[in-house]
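Why does residue order matter? Because the sequence determines the fold. Keep that principle in mind as you read this record.
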Amino acid sequence: HYQPYDRLPIVHFGFWQETLAIWADEGHIPRTLAETWGDGNPADAEITRLLGFDMNFFTTFCPNAHLLPGFPTEVLEEMPDGSKKIRNSDGVVVMQKPEAGSIPMEFEHLLKDRASWEAHYKHRYEFHEDRVRHTPVLVNGQMIPWKDGGLEFLQSGERDYAISLYAGSLFGSIRNVLGVMVASYLFAEDDELFTEIVDTQGELVYQVAKYALESGAKFDFGHFWEDICFKNGPLIIPSVFEEKVGPHYKHITQLMNE
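Structure:
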């Protein structure tokens, strides 16, 4: 709100697992923390304290605004070097290499046309209350179920650290499911389907955020996740993003500002 402040918080955005292992080898953090770290879990809270950060940006209430249920992870092929070709929870066939935490190589995407959308995906974007009610709440370094005190904690607002409401991803998660190539062609080859997918995702995110806010939970800020650029520029034409995705951003941010 452009008001005076005493200091800016020092915030991190999580860690590569390989980096944590190196820091453990160098003696900066205990190995048990490196091996058990996850965004927002107790190990994360302790690493945050040890390294001098104020918070993890992912200290957030993160209801499910994506595919539900996800696809069962399935190993399709194993390579001599230990690499595995798997179908992941998005229905995408990727190469999983041992000890690698970076973005995997993609081979095939189940979602590619109207038939696959109707058969395998559309129903997985339906809103229901359990998307929010089954999300645990981070309470002082411990994950507490919504029904067992998590909601009351969020309603009270009694905390000395910020908690955000994760407002989902309006295109990045779609790009994950479609892949860059299919996503790049689909809006030109089947604008109706492309628009329906974006609108379905946008409506789901809106309903999830609306339910969380109407519960009386108090959040300090909301945030979206979009991973839609590479080193040479955006992975979607900016005008297409503005036309198709922009209205959903406005709708959801207006909800949060009310």
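Residues 111 and 118 are 9 Å apart (CA to CA).
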